[in-house]
Each structure stands twice: as structure tokens, then as C-alpha cells.
Amino acid sequence: MDWIVAPDPNGRALRDVLPSMLSALDVEGFTDTIGIPPCRTALVLLIDGLGHELLREHAADAPFLSSLQSAPPLTAGFPTTTVTSITSLATGRCAGEHGLVGYTFAEPGGGLLHPLSWTVRSAPGGAGDERGDMIEKWPPEQVQPHATVLERAAAAGVDVRTAVPGHFEGTGLTRASMRGAAFRGVRELGDLAAELLAAAQSRGPALCYGYHGGVDLLGHIHGPGSIQWRMQLRQIDAFVQMIAEALPPGAVLGVVADHGMVDLDPAEAIDADADPALSDGVRLIGGEVRVRQVYARPGARDDVLAAWRDTIGAAGAVMTGEQAIDEGYFGPVSAQMRPRIGDVLAIMRSGGVIRSVHEPGESALRGHHGSLTAAEQLVPVLVTGG
Question: Domain of life of the organism in this record (predicted)?
Fold first, then answer.
């Protein structure tokens, strides 16, 4: 399938960014596969949702960012969704290793874990759409048991910080992915700028991760390329230029994204709940609208696979979880993580979504991601300073 862009296993993926930055800081045990200039302090700013193709298509709205777009793009990983990508960035591992394998995925109690809120939705026939807090029942440190790159860096003597929205503090996703960093809660771009520049002016070695979510938010609501999205892109372009111009000697800024985004019409969606063929033999439907992970009832996998293939047709690629693993989409998959991956996966092409009544907000959005198209998979790596 020539439309699928598989994750890069050879050192030019999002998971390779922090190890490359630490290598540039001359921290032992890390390798630079990205091409980061030697530095004393390193800043990584993740602009949620700003894919490589979107930046290229809207270069006029982001002249400074576009001026840095010289290196080949990175692959985000799979699925191309925030919880998976950010955890890959922070751990240096693929989804099959760190275990946050999608927007929602099966948890041991029989429900779907929603990692952004760290809540669970029960299976059909259970407690309906009620969501229960899973922080104590399935602690983030068990769900994602590996040491993060941030923990390893801190143990090596690096001043490690995160500059992210204040309400991220103590969340399940933060505990799973960002362990080891000093938390710096921010409210607006001014706070984010101040924290990044404070880290840049450290005596070093120092590493600071910053996050901006406005581009992704407006892309979801209005669609990537909408006037609202373009105005937000112009704002973040000016912000990055301001940071770059204030960098002291010896500081490097790397700008990346967690995924791209495609503009879709919700009216053209496939409704998983309305078609009996897509529910027969199905225990759970996880993932998100661009890549569904389907968990079959015992003995029903092959029938589920056939039904989903017949229904989806040319709108996407439907395969078993084993095939997706064999293709390397999740990277190495441990026995501990395998039950979290669907028995059947539906990976949609450029024009398709599979929505569910259990996700009314998500299903109504204009912009989406999660699949393996170039627009979703390829992300920029923009480096300045040194």
C-alpha cells in the first residue's frame, strides 16, 4: 500500500530527538542520529499537530519556521496520536515498548483506558459511558514501566525541566511519560518563553522540554488550513523567532511536532455503532477515528477481520494486530504490551474516519490524525542556535 508511511526504525524518528539532544550536550550513553550541533543547553519545543506537510503547504504563514526546514522530516511513530508520540519522545521508545499504544486501548479490567484523562470506559453491557479514574487501579508507572530519557538525563547530572501547561502536573500521562524532570507549569506563551529562556541561560548541561497545543486544538475544531488555524500558526511562528533570537551562545533550540493532521468532513464518516457488521463479535473498539483498534470476542477474530475488510474496502487498510506488529508499525512489542493492541486494526486513508457514539466530541471534529499517511506521519525537526 503505497500511501502508508511506516515509522522509521533507523534513527530519524521522534523518539530519537531527546537522545540526540543529550548527545549534543556531551552526555555519555546517548547517540545523535538527528544532527544537533554541540551545545551547553538544549531546548525542545513540541508544537502539537504541526506536521511537515502542513508547514510546507503554509510556509507563507510561518516564514521563520519554514526558514529552518532544511533537514528531512522525522516519522512520528504509530499511531500518530499525542499520547503515543509524546511518550515515544520522552522515553526514546516505540509504542510497542512503552505501552501507550493509542488514544484509547484495552486495559486488564476489560475496558478502554483513555490516557489523556487516565480514566476507563467500561465495555458494552457494563456501566455504559461512565468513566472511572484509573490512577490507583492501574498506576502510570506500571502502564509505562521503563525509565524515561528525562530520568536517565537527570541521573547523569543534567538539569532537566518541562515547561508545559500547569494543569498537566501530576496527571497520569505526565507520570507515565515525563518522569524525572522538574515541572514548570505555564499558562500563556509569555510563561513558556520565560521558562525556555531561563533554561537556555543555565550554566549547563541543561535540557528543557516545552509544549504548545494551540495549533492542534484549532486544527481539530476548524480544520488545518482554516483561517483560525493559520492565525495560530502565525502567532507560534513569531513566538519561535522571538525565542531563537534571544538564545545565548551555546544554546540550541529544536522544534518538533507529535503528528500532522488531515482535514475531513464528518458527514462522510463511517458509523461503527450503526452498522451491525462492525459490531458482531466485537468486544471493544478503541483507538481513534483515523485508526481503530478492534478487540474481538474469543474465537471471533477472523470473522471480525472479514467483516471490517468488507465494510471499509478501499477507504483504508484492515489487518490483524499480528500483521501490524510484523510490519513494524509499533516497533518491538513485548508480551506485556501485546494485549493492549487490537486483534484487528483499521487504518484509514486520506478521506476516512470511523466514528462512535461513545466519542461524540471527537467524532464531530474537523481535523483528525492517527493514521499512517504522510500528512499525519511526517513531522518537522527544525534546529537553530549552537
Answer: Bacteria
Mean pLDDT of 192-209: 96
Examine residue 118 and state whether it is found in any structural domain, yes or no.
Answer: no
The radius of gyration computed from the CA coordinates of the chain, to the nearest angstrom, equals 20
Q: Do the domain assignments include residue 104?
A: no
54 domain residue, yes or no: yes
* 214-222 vs 227-245: helix crossing angle, rounded to 10: 170
> Which 8-state DSSP code applies to residue 267?
G
**Backbone phi and psi for residue 325, each to the nearest 5 degrees, phi listed first:** -65, -45
d(CA 71, CA 309): 38
Check residue 13 and report its DSSP letter: B
Q: What angle do CA 10, 11, 12 make, to 5 degrees?
A: 105
Give the distance, in angstroms, between the CA of residue 6 and the centroid of all CA atoms in the same chain. Answer: 15
Same domain, 259 and 152: yes
Same domain, 40 and 165: yes
d(CA 330, CA 321) in angstroms, rounded, equals: 10
Quick check: is 5 in a domain?
A: no
What amino acid is encoded at 232 in this protein?
Answer: Q
Cα(91)–Cα(376) distance, rounded to whole angstroms? 21
H/E run at residue 206: strand 206-212
The whole-angstrom separation of Cα 309 and Cα 302 is 11
- pTM, rounded to two decimals: 0.95
Q: Give 123's pLDDT tier (boundaries 50, 70, 90).
A: low
